[in-house]
């Protein structure tokens, strides 16, 4: 109901809509309308009330609220249910709890900040206000070995969204990062520090896919996605700053976080449906086009293996194939990859 | 402390141990001793108290209590922490919660009965009183694809325990059941019903392995094991009875559930340590010796595939290899297998 009131006000933003009209259109009393309006104000919506004219929506809060994400969201699966938190421990942990309780595919958990954001292998993931910290629950009919595919469609979705919405070059670093070729690098030229288009790739998004599985069956996949949207890089711990950027920093302006979230959910869903319909081949083709890894000299640390060589391909499971100096082909399923200077 | 009091009483079962002696040995007051004794009585221990002579342990409750399982348990890893419930929804669900909170490898969850016991693929698993319903948390350094190995070592551990403790022929049915070649079958011979050693295999144990994993890393494995120990088959739903048996039924007497649990944990741990030390090959060798599947004509349903043929081998991942009538080799990772009459 609150969502419907909001949508009616939103359609005529900054105009007044009478309590009478809302009451008739929604079939509830004017007192009930008033109560919902108070609740919306409590959530941060600025709504003017005038005794004669009614209610007028002045501004929506700068938060990733379900009402805002759902409005005109063009998805069939993703975002059907949205759980929003101002602060949470970890969106992935909460999503896994929901998944284990049997919630349907497409539910998402989004938070303005995470107290205990997680990266791969239990590492810390910094999640200050201004970023998008979101987890998507899916129940794909895949084998446990095929779970990396989920990371790949998420990375593709994020990179495509950045490319479509902004004049930024987003690339995917295998297996689970999205990078931007930073335009604002300071480089040393002829002994002087100059601002210049640099070739430095900086991380703007990380993805952590977790699954619950039996032998041959994936019960659920939770794709955790963290995107640095409107974040001052100084908010990140010192050790991350050098290789990290945000959309705000790259563009030099703040962006509409809700807009980004909607487009991203749509892009990811498109790739997910494509995967279901056509299999992994067309996904892989898209992915290779914007890979920051393929063709590069890299150093990969996977478990207790360290492999240096040229990243030459991705196989149908999403594993990276590296050709070493000795001409041997090595395959890794996941790991830490450092791009080497060519 | 309660465990230590109990162990002192247990060493001199049915004799009296004075409050004075307990107090001195354990360094706590006689009032504190008295309080612990009351608590133990509340848990079902029968302990006589006499003003002059002290306390005497008469009997322990017929429950899988941590004190009882831990006493003389010869394991290094399994059972270090034991969570016991008279009733629980599902031991696997609780164990997964513990695992996600970071509890160490070897913790176990055991319940006298489960309200919502789970089988493979979300199927119902009947868990009446008298059975062993237990989940083991492990953190093996394996790939997600190798998780079936955990089911295999658990099945081996259960089958070996049954074979060592009782004169029963236990076999493993791929992938996750332990069967007993039932001695008490009624067969029709010459038109008359006669009791005779039959060749019917009946299910005595099922295993459900669930894992939490990232791309290339298993965070935890929870092995859920259900063994029909002292259960009247009539307690099972009608549709299960035909193919189900219990140790009690096969032996014609009740067994010591605590003893079974200890020996089973020891057997499973032995196979787990063997796997860590020597890899999967020696496990597979043991497994093949008591397979109820290998060499048999079977029908396997795996996902939407139905394969009929002869089960000829298990590969290094634990997948079953079936040779069809047409001579083609098919491989399945898990599924429902029916043994066909040869």
Describe what is shown at a glance.
The structure is a homodimer of 342-residue chains. Chain A has 342 residues and is of the alpha+beta class.
* Greatest chain-chain contact: A-B, 31 and 32 residues
Number of strands of chain A: 16
Overall average residue pLDDT of chain A: 90
Low-confidence stretches of chain A: none
Number of domains in the coordinates of chain A? 3
Largest sheet of chain A: 7 strands, mixed
CATH architecture descriptor name of the largest domain in chain A: 2-Layer Sandwich
Percent of residues in beta strands of chain A:
25-35%
Count the DSSP helices of chain A. 10
CATH level 1 name of the largest domain in chain A: Alpha Beta
The best one-word shape of chain A is: elongated
Order of helices and strands of chain A: HHHEEHEHEEHEEEEEEHHHHEEEEE
Q: N-to-C terminal Cα separation of chain A, in Å? A: 58 Å
Main sheet strand line-up of chain A: 3-4-5-11-10-7-6
Any idea of the CATH topology of the largest domain in chain A? BirA Bifunctional Protein, domain 2
> Share of helix among residues of chain A?
25-40%
What is the rounded Rg of chain A? 22 Å
CATH superfamily of the largest domain in chain A: Bira Bifunctional Protein, Domain 2
Oligomer: homodimer
């Amino acid at each position: 109901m609150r969502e419907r009131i909001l949508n009616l006000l939103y359609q005529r933003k900054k105009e007044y809509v009478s309590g009478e009209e809302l009451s008739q259109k929604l079939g509830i009393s004017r007192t009930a309308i008033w109560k919902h309006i108070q609740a919306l104000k409590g959530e941060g919506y600025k709504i003017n009330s005038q005794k004669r004219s009614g209610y007028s929506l002045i501004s929506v809060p700068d938060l990733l609220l379900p009402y805002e994400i759902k409005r005109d969201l063009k998805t069939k699966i993703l975002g059907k249910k949205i759980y929003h938190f101002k602060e949470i421990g970890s969106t992935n942990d909460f999503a896994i709890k929901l998944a284990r309780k049997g919630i349907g595919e497409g539910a998402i958990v989004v938070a303005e900040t995470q107290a205990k954001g997680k990266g791969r292998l239990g590492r810390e993931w910094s999640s200050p206000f201004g970023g998008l910290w979101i987890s998507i629950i899916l129940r794909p009919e895949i084998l446990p070995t095929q779970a990396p595919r989920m990371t790949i469609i998420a990375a593709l979705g994020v990179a495509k969204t950045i490319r479509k919405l902004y004049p930024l070059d987003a690339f995917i670093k295998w297996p689970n990062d999205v990078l931007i070729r930073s335009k604002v690098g300071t480089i040393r030229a002829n002994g002087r520090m100059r601002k210049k288009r640099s070739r430095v790739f900086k991380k703007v998004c990380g993805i952590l896919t977790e699954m619950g599985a039996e032998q041959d069956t994936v019960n659920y996949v939770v794709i955790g996605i963290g995107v640095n949207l409107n974040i001052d890089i100084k908010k990140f711990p010192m050790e991350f700053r050098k290789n990290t950027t945000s959309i705000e920093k790259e563009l030099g302006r703040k962006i509409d976080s809700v807009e980004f979230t909607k487009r991203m959910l749509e892009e990811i869903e498109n790739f997910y449906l494509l995967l279901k319909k056509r299999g992994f081949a067309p996904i892989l083709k898209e992915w290779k086009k914007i890979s920051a890894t393929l063709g590069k000299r890299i150093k990969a640390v996977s478990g207790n293996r360290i492999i240096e060589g040229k990243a030459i391909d991705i196989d149908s499971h999403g594993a990276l194939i590296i050709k070493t100096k000795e001409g041997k082909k090595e395959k890794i399923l996941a790991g830490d990859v450092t791009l080497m200077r060519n």
